[in-house]
Each structure stands twice: as structure tokens, then as C-alpha cells.
């Protein structure tokens, strides 16, 4: 599954636009006032919808860049069912009001105090609105991005998801937002919606000016009154802690004047009239003292209403205080009512900077001792005997070993070698993932340190479920539509195949649908498509599949050949040919002949083929996710026997080809293993033993090139044309594919050595069934070989001599 560049660019662009809209909130006039409220900007549905849309786009971008992590796509699809309706609701309501009723959503622009000519006066009220780019980023970009992603880029949702999951998630989201909005309103005193005017929760306390006139004007909440009181306390504290010399230099008269100014700054007086300052409040209306002061004493948030004149004076006072920060930097100067607030703020700012500096020093402090200690050999042996006591400790140790090996020069402990860290890491991998140490080391050697961990981790995750469309009976588009109607969630595998479909979830058994029983598709791993695509059989050709059961590759070739020509589907295990025949009949393959020969008997029994497919018996190290028993039951002897058998089979496959074929002359060798012994070593052996065999390009669009050298061994340079496939890279079973072109022989020579290579063992899934003239270093193997021959002859119906007591003891 490859990266999707175009969707990735679109998702990244959407994220950038929405991020610009959110960052631009700091430029609006009401930003500071909103931030001081409970919930800040996050109390508004617009901002919550914007954040949900941004997270959805971020997950979509991760899914485009890492398509093999299906969990990311699943989370994104669930979030999309919530963020899409929220964004549509926000955009619909906002733009409807903007176009039809702007006065309900936009605050009016304050009228200019300068006189204007009647001809130039505006005919309609003017409204303040945010810049258009910010407006579009906040109220239009999220919905447009999500709608495009839902209908164009995202695969279809199942009926179950649309009918049950989507309404449930939307309901939970609505309840959560209603609870959050009610909480914010209870703290702030109003249901705010910028820039819509607040909806009042509590009764206003009207403030009357001293001249007896009451006008609607600037509204100050009780929360602001508390801030004023807090500032008063902080300022008095600052006065107490400031330089004592300034106070000592004052005489009693100057000190009395200063205290009078301080009192005038923070307490409102009925005798001040219209000269009230930023901290003063006018008298309450007569008769409202008992009613309106009681809520203030109870702590409920109320809103105080000043006259227009008071509002102007309040703004002037605040501007003077803000300007005093820059004008009163000299802390040693005389304290006045004008610089008291500035000095208090400066002290608070210094305290915050000191706290931030202490946190930074704590974060960047050097560790006093090493966090990781490499166990000794004795400790490792004890752990092997007792088993893993702490899984988290093993995980931590593996992570530290990987870190050290990636930067050994700087991170390695003194006196420790690279081999010690490597041995410890392999031992931890074997114990943590359940491998024997031999296989863990063999697989570890194939990759870099970090990639090895990814490979072992990928083997713990099942591969995607895939099906292959049988083009003899259905088209992929029609099959996909039929399965979607049955509740199957699927999509095409990729551009490299036009018959594969990946199944994500299904409400019906995927192996028991009417379409499956009718032969419209075959349950088949995506990696099994690769050898057939590389072989590319043509119509009317004569093809041999040397190890064909259960028939996935055979029926695939039959479909490519359009039921023409002739395919010999061979399998050495006669019991497995039953499933092979069943699949051939179910899929309607009429050009297939099923046979059961030892693969080494070709071309003696049959020959002259245009193309040969050899999917050789192997150790299965590429399909550990399907068969976990491989982790523990494979030994060095198994790899030796399998490699010997594979070398024999590939030579027989080469000899079975008709080199004079006008359309063919090709062989594809493949295994579901990732070890070099079963792949590059076998192919290199065939190139040396059969000079008329040449490696050619496989024609596969992806895959890792094969090794040309490995741990001191050098192979033919043409081995770079072969292809490797890994679970952690391609999200499919580990696989190996090599393609040969067979040319006519220049000289026909058969030596005794080549003849002896035709003899050996035949290994099937049931185990070792036949041993021939094969010698080993261990003399005890001769007894096992003799017993194997005796059992094989008995199985074929021959009379065999009964074993004596010595033979029974040796075999037992």
C-alpha cells in the first residue's frame, strides 16, 4: 500500500488554512476580554468545530503518509462522523445570518464624533466584521475540507455506520458541548458567541451617574471588580516590599497626600462627580441597595452598566496605566498614583520570569547517573532460566540497546563492546516475542537495528484480509458493489493489481457469501499475487505450477490465460490436491490438469513448458503472523535441508523449460521466506549451475532489491533484479520473487555431480517423506535416513523387513 501524495497535499493545505484562522484570533479587539473568561475561545462551537476539523485533517494526513497503519484511518473515520456535521452546522448558521441578518451577528461600528455633511452620512448602519481571509478560514474552510474529504477522498461508510454509529457519536458530542457551554455560562454570566451579543443569565445592576441620568454604556462584570480589588491588594504589597528609602525620604505631609491618592485610585466616592477614574463606581439607583447588593455579596456574577461618559473615562485611565509600564521603568523613582500599578505589574512579571527560569534549568539539568545498565552474561543466563519477570523492563532494555547501537560511539558504556549490546538485544527479542535465539539472530542479521525491531513487531500484527477477483466470472467493480451491498467494507489493494480487493470489515462471513460459492473471488494473500504477475502467462501457452496447492496461483494464471492453453497444477502431497481440485472447479478453470508428482521428477515425466512457476517449499519466516509455531520449531538443520531441496527443484524447473519457445521461456522462483539461505543463495546457485539461465526484471512496481552480498558472501550482481517484500515495509507477508529467462544451451554437459544434485529429499508440509543418497557430518543421521527409507517403502506398499531391537532403540 503506497503513499497517497495528492490527498496528503490537500489535507496539509486544509490544516494550514484552519491553523491560520485560529492564530488570527489574537488580532481581534475582543481577544483579551475573551481569554480572561472561563473557557476562553474554547467555549464557542465555532472554535470546537475548527479544532475537530483540524484533528480530522491531521489524522487524514497521517493515513496518507502511513497507509499501512489502519488504526489511524479507523480513528479518523470515527472523528469525521462528528466533525463533519458540527462544521456544516456552524457554516450554515453563520453564513445565513451574515447574508440575511448581519445585524444579529455583527456589532455596530461606533459613530464618529466629528460632524459630517448630510450627503456623506451613511444611509444604513455600519457593522464591524473581521477580515475576510480570517472569516473564511474560521467559518468556511473546515466544512468545505471535510465535505470534500467525505465524498471524494474517503471510502464509503457501511449502512450500519451511517444508521447507528454516526447518530450515536453526534448525540454524545451534542450532550458534551451543551454541558460545557452551560458550565462556561454559569461562570461567565452569559451565553457568549463572538461577535453575537451576550444573552444575559443574571439581572443587570444599572448604575446612575451623579447628575441623575442613566444611559446604557460599557458593561463591567463583578469579576472585573474583583480584579480591581486584587490589584489594590497587590499594589499595597508592592508598596510594602519596595525600596524603603523612598518612604524614609518622605515627610508626613507627602505620605498623607500619597495615601489619599491611593485611596482615590481604588475606591469610588459620591463626592467625586464626573471626575471618576478607572477604578471608581457610581452610586447605585435608589432603592436598589437591598436588592442588587445581595447578589454581589453572594458571589454571583453580575454586570454593572456605566454611562457613556464613564466608559470614556475608564478607557483613558486604562491607556494611562498601560503607558506607565514604559514610562516608569525606574523603580527607584518616587511612587505616585500613576506608577503604582506599573510597579506592581513589574514585580509580578519578574516573579514569573524567575519561575520560568527555574523550570528551564530543571528540564535541562544533566542526569547524575546512567539510566541503563547492560546485564552481564550470568544475569542473562539466570533470566533465561527464570523467564521474564518484568515485561516493561525488557521493553526499556530493548529501546536502550537500540539507542546505543545507533550511536555507539557516544552512548556506549566504557569497556562494553558492540557485540555485547547486540547479544543482549537478540536475547531480549527472543524472550519478548517468543522466538528461539537461533531464529531471532538469523532474522536480526537481515536488517539494521531499528528496522529489525519494526520487522519483529510487524510479525505480531495480522496482515490485511484480501481477495482476488476471478475475472473468468466477474469484474472487480461489479464484485465490489455486490459485496458492499452485503455489508462488506472494502477498497482496491493498489495500482499494482487490477483484481485485488482489501476487506476492512464485514457483517457477513467473507468465505461463505453467494459470490464466493459462485466462484467470483478467491480468498488469497496479496503477496501470492506477486509471482503470477511476474510470470505473466500468455494465452495458449503450456505452463507448469510445480507446487500449486491450494490453487490460488493456478486459478490466477488460468484467468490471465482466459481459460486457453494448458496448465499443469502439480503438488507432491496428494492429500492437498483435493482442495486444489475444489478451487479449480469452483472458479470455473477449464484449462487446468491436476497431477501429483515429486517436483524433482520433472522434466522426466513432463517437459517442454513455455513458463514454469516454482513457489518452493520454505521455512515460512515471512508468514509468522499466520503461523506462530515457526518462531520455535525451526532449527539450523531445517534451513540446511530446505535450501538443498530448493536448489534441486529450481534446477528441475529450468530443465523443464522449452528454451525455443516463441512467447515464453521464463521461470519465476518464489518463497514466503525472508532468509538469504532460501532466496539469494538458491538463485545464485542456479545461475552458476545453469549458464543458460539469466535473471531478468520481475516487472513488479515495488519491492526491495535482493542482496548482492551478505555477511561476507558475494552473489551475482544481477540478483539486484530480484525483489524482496517485508511485512513492516509493504504490509504484506514476507516474500521473495526472482524471474529467469532460459536460453538455448551451448553445450550439453551432464556431470556426475549434477546428477547427484538431482537426488535428495522431498519435504512437504507433513514432514520428511523421502531421503536419498545424502550425507551429513553427523554419523547418527544414517540411522534416521535408513528408517525414513523403510517407512517410505512401507507407505508405497512394499514389503519391508521388520526392525530388530537395535534398530528400534536407535530410531526411538
Automatic annotation (TrEMBL):
GO molecular function, one term: RNA binding
Region (Disordered): 234-347, 787-812
GO biological process per UniProt: maturation of LSU-rRNA; rRNA base methylation
Domain SAM-dependent MTase RsmB/NOP-type: 455-743
Biased amino acid composition, Acidic residues: 240-256, 283-295, 309-332
This protein's record includes keyword Methyltransferase: yes
Listed Basic residues bias regions: 789-802
Keyword list, A-Z: Membrane, Methyltransferase, Nucleus, Ribosome biogenesis, RNA-binding, S-adenosyl-L-methionine, Transferase, Transmembrane, Transmembrane helix
Metal-binding found in the keyword field: no
Annotated signal sequence range: none
NCBIfam families: nop2p (TIGR00446)
This protein's name: Nucleolar protein 2
Phylogenetic lineage: Eukaryota, Fungi, Dikarya, Basidiomycota, Agaricomycotina
Amino acid at each position: 500500500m503506497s503513499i497517497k501524495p495528492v490527498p496528503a497535499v490537500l489535507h496539509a493545505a486544509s490544516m494550514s488554512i484552519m491553523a491560520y484562522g485560529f492564530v488570527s484570533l489574537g488580532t481581534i479587539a475582543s481577544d483579551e476580554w475573551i481569554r480572561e473568561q472561563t473557557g476562553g475561545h474554547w467555549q464557542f462551537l465555532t472554535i470546537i468545530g475548527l479544532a475537530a476539523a483540524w484533528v480530522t485533517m491531521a489524522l487524514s494526513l497521517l493515513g496518507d503518509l502511513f497507509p499501512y497503519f489502519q488504526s489511524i484511518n479507523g480513528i479518523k473515520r470515527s472523528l469525521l462522523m462528528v466533525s463533519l456535521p458540527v462544521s456544516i452546522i456552524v457554516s450554515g448558521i453563520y453564513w445565513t445570518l451574515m447574508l440575511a441578518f448581519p445585524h444579529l451577528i455583527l456589532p455596530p461600528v461606533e459613530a464618529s464624533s466629528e460632524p459630517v455633511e448630510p450627503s456623506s452620512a451613511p444611509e444604513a448602519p455600519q457593522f464591524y466584521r473581521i477580515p475576510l481571509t480570517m472569516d473564511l478560514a474560521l467559518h468556511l474552510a473546515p466544512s468545505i475540507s471535510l465535505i470534500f474529504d467525505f465524498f471524494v477522498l474517503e471510502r464509503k461508510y457501511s449502512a450500519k455506520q451511517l444508521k447507528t454509529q454516526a447518530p450515536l457519536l453526534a448525540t454524545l458530542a451534542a450532550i458534551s458541548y451543551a454541558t460545557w457551554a452551560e458550565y462556561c455560562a454559569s461562570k461567565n454570566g452569559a451565553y457568549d458567541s463572538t461577535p453575537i451579543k451576550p444573552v444575559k443569565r443574571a439581572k443587570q445592576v444599572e448604575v446612575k451617574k451623579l447628575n441623575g441620568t442613566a444611559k446604557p454604556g460599557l458593561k463591567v462584570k463583578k469579576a472585573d471588580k474583583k480584579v480591581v480589588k486584587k490589584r489594590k491588594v497587590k499594589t499595597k504589597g508592592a508598596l510594602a516590599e519596595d525600596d524603603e528609602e523612598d518612604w524614609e525620604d518622605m515627610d508626613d505631609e507627602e505620605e498623607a497626600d500619597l495615601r489619599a491618592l491611593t485611596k482615590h485610585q481604588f475606591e469610588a466616592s459620591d463626592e467625586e462627580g464626573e471626575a471618576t477614574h478607572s477604578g471608581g463606581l457610581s452610586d447605585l439607583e435608589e432603592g436598589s441597595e437591598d436588592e442588587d447588593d445581595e447578589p454581589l455579596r453572594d458571589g454571583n456574577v453580575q454586570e454593572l452598566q456605566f454611562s457613556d461618559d464613564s466608559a470614556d473615562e475608564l478607557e483613558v485611565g486604562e491607556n494611562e496605566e498601560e503607558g506607565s509600564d514604559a514610562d516608569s521603568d525606574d523603580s527607584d523613582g518616587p511612587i505616585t498614583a500613576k506608577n503604582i500599578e506599573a510597579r506592581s505589574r513589574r514585580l509580578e512579571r519578574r516573579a514569573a520570569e524567575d519561575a520560568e527560569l527555574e523550570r528551564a534549568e530543571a528540564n535541562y539539568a544533566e542526569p547524575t547517573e546512567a539510566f541503563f545498565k547492560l546485564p552481564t552474561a550470568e544475569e542473562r543466563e539466570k533470566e533465561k532460566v527464570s523467564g521474564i519477570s518484568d515485561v516493561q523492563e525488557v521493553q526499556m532494555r530493548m529501546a536502550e540497546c537500540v539507542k546505543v547501537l545507533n550511536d555507539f560511539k557516544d552512548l556506549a558504556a566504557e569497556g562494553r563492546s558492540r557485540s555485547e549490546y547486540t547479544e543482549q538485544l537478540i536475547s531480549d527479542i527472543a524472550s519478548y516475542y517468543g522466538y528461539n535465539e537461533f531464529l531471532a539472530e538469523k532474522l536480526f542479521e537481515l536488517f539494521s537495528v531499528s528496522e529489525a525491531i519494526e520487522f519483529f513487531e510487524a510479525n505480531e500484527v495480522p496482515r490485511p484480509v484480501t481477495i482476488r477477483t476471478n475475472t473468468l466470472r466477474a469484474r472487480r467493480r461489479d464484485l465490489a458493489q455486490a459485496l458492499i451491498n452485503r455489508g462488506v467494507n472494502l477498497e482496491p489493494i493498489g495500482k499494482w493489481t487490477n483484481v485485488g480487493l482489501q476487506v476492512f470489515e464485514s457483517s457477513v462471513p467473507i468465505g461463505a457469501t453467494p459470490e464466493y460459492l459462485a466462484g467470483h473471488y478467491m480468498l488469497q494473500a496479496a503477496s501470492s499475487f506477486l509471482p503470477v504477475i511476474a510470470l505473466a502467462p500468455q494465452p495458449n501457452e503450456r505452463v507448469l505450477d510445480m507446487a500449486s496447492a491450494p490453487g490460488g496461483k493456478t486459478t490466477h494464471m488460468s484467468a490471465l490465460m482466459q481459460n486457453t492453453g494448458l496448465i499443469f497444477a502439480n503438488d507432491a502431497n496428494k492429500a492437498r490436491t483435493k482442495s486444489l481440485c475444489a478451487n479449480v472447479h469452483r472458479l470455473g478453470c477449464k484449462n487446468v490438469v491436476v497431477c501429483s508428482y515429486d517436483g524433482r521428477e520433472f522434466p522426466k515425466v513432463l517437459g517442454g513448458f513455455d513458463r514454469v512457476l516454482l513457489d518452493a517449499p520454505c521455512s515460512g519466516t515471512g508468514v509468522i503472523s499466520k503461523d506462530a509455531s515457526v518462531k520455535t520449531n525451526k532449527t539450523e538443520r531445517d534451513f540446511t535441508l530446505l535450501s538443498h531441496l530448493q536448489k534441486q527443484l529450481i534446477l528441475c524447473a529450468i530443465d523443464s523449460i522449452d528454451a525455443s519457445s516463441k512467447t515464453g521461456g521464463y521461470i519465476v522462483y518464489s518463497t514466503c521466506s525472508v532468509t538469504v539461505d532460501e532466496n539469494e543463495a538458491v538463485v545464485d546457485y542456479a545461475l552458476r549451475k545453469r549458464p543458460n539461465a539469466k535473471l531478468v526484471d520481475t516487472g513488479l512496481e515495488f519491492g526491495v532489491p535482493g542482496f548482492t552480498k551478505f555477511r561476507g558472501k558475494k552473489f551475482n550482481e544481477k540478483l539486484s533484479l530480484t525483489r524482496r517484500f517485508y511485512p513492516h515495509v509493504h504490509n504484506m507477508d514476507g516474500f521473495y520473487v526472482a524471474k529467469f529467462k532460459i536460453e538455448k544451451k551451448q553445450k550439453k554437459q551432464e556431470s556426475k555431480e549434477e546428477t547427484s544434485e538431482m537426488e535428495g529429499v522431498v519435504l512437504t508440509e507433513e514432514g520428511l517423506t523421502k531421503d536419498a543418497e545424502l550425507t551429513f557430518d553427523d554419523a547418527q543421521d544414517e540411522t534416521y535416513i535408513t528408517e525414513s527409507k523403510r517407512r517410505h517403502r512401507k507407505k508405497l506398499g512394499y514389503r519391508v523387513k521388520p526392525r530388530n531391537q537395535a534398530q528400534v532403540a536407535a530410531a526411538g
